[in-house]
Amino acid sequence: MSEAIITLERVSRVYDTGKVLVPALEDVDLTIERGEFVAIVGPSGSGKSTMMNILGCLDRPTAGRYVLDGTPVEELDDNGLAAVRSRSIGFVFQSYNLLPRTSAIENVAAPLAYQGVGRKERLARAQEALERLGLGERLHHQPTELSGGQQQRVGIARAIVTEPALLLADEPTGNLDSHAGAEVIDLFRQLHATGRTIVLITHDVDVAVAADRQIHIRDGRIAA
Amino acid sequence: MKPGDLLRLAVSRLGTGKLRTGLTMLGVIIGVASVVALVSVGQGATSGINSRLEGLGTNLLSITPGATTTGATRGAFGSATTLTTEDATALTTLPDVAGVAPELTSSHLIAVGSQNETTSVIGTTPAYPLVFAYEMWRGSFLTQASVDHSLRVAVLGNTTASNLGLGASSIGSTVYISGLPFQVVGIMQPKGGVGFQNPDDEVLIPVTTARDLFVGGDSVRTIGVSVASQADMNTVTAEITSVLDQRHGIGAGGTPDFTVTSQTQLLSTVGSISTLLTVLLAGIASISLIVGGIGIMNIMLVSVRERTREIGIRKAIGARGRDVMLQFLFEALLLSVSGGFIGILVGVAASAVIAVLAGWAFTFNPVTVAVSVIFSLIVGVIFGVWPASQAARLDPVVALRYE
Lengths: 224, 403
Hints:
The complex is a heterodimer. Chain A has helices at about 50-55, 80-90, 105-115, 120-130, 150-160, 180-195, 205-210; strands at about 5-15, 20-35, 35-40, 65-70, 70, 90, 165-170, 195-200, 215-220, 220. Chain A is an alpha/beta fold. Chain A has a domain at about 5-90 and about 160-220: Rossmann fold, CATH 3.40.50. In chain A, helix 6 links the parallel strand 7 and strand 8. Chain A is globular. Chain B is of the alpha+beta class. Helices cover about 55% and strands about 20% of the residues of chain B. Chain B has helices spanning about 5-15, 20-55, 85-90, 130, 145-150, 160-165, 205-215, 235-250, 265-305, 310-315, 320-360, 365-395, 395-400; strands at about 60-65, 70, 75, 95-110, 115-125, 135-140, 155, 175, 180-190, 200-205, 220-225, 260. The radius of gyration of chain B is 33 Å and the shape is elongated. Chains A and B meet through helix 2 and helix 3 of A and helix 1, helix 10, helix 11 and helix 13 of B.
């Protein structure tokens, strides 16, 4: 039953500033299994944003091997990475990152458009996802007409509408008050209960405890 | 992403900033409208000039005196005074010639009561209306008898008559040309001006009378020859040349002291000039279309910059570079093509108004319209590709962090 969805082998990411080489990740080994709820915890500057970019296929490691859901990612070109993001990853951002001037349902439907799903089916699936997250009354609201907690729930609906193998959340509670933050964490627990793989990246140890496993990262290396 | 989705995105995006969209489109609208209007104006003017030139008589040959050469100095075209009324008379005997009308022209004050004006007084023969395609309105034209006896009779052009306050009842009344009394025998139908000269503002008197009273010599400015059939134009031209060569004592290889011009030559000259003008106008107008395109590029570059974060989001949720590229390209195309369509409407309307004001037939040229649409499409692609590829190349990590 235990099947690795993420495998990192000696992954490094070094930034070349032109004058000096700045290592952000060094020789990271990591395995996350399907259905796990993992928190990657570390202070700012620890390399966790780089970790998130690599895991999310927004960036490539400069060395090492990354296999996501059976696909060796480090070999892919930009279009290949985009295809992996489209198919296998759902992002939840700290600042929600909803498309401006675009209604909740259109926001949630947007990832499906890049998969080539027809408009009717897109809207139906987006509506279903929003209803599942309790936003059935807010389908046609603009992001500016929604509270922070609601916007983040739209963001989560957008992340799960494609049924991705991996849900990747970057400080999802960072812009929310404690009540709304707790609701979001609760949502993640519910999604985890339905079998979803979730990686939560945070600096907040109180948030991290919601996960089943915590991976601490410090100075570009996994600490524990 | 499917084309329908891209189009929907572009429409909703352009709908959110209507002022900006409108102003950006305005560049293309003005460009396309001026191309359409100016080409239409050029063509309308050309066909207007052509139809009036044809109104002069398409079977017309004009003989004008050549240039004189005194020593090393060549005189102006038409400065020779070698063409005479006798030449004109000699030409009437040629076969295939329907009529010959010399023009012995001088300028005089015409007076009736308190009305007066200075205009051309042309001494000519009864063939004048046939050769120059005039119709009589009232009375009759000059007769051969009036020429033979140098009678003091006059036929008035329509404009001249109305300037002098003469109407239908004025036939038989007296006008004074340079103080000498002439009897009005006829008034002609208006023919309409070619623009630079009003053919209805003239007074026609017998050629003999003009020679005796006003010109004092026998040299004519022009001899108009009407050829019986258009097919004989070249034959008749050759015949005229040989007759005049002989009369003027010009041997083989000598320089003739006259020129025979046909109406078709004039038409083709005018035609090529006005085509050149039309192309020139269209060229100037297309510059404004290019300026409009630069406006689109400018606004698209600003837009890419402003929407960096949106581009990052779209890439994070699965957009490939190509999807982002097409999204921005569609916006540029929508701007330029809808600007183009509005421009065509404006241009067609403007050319219709100009045609009405100028009094020529409104010509709608589907080719111009098609070319304008294609041109605005090309403008959209050319000036949209660069901003769109800028957008497509953005690094998603950087774009997502962009504030």
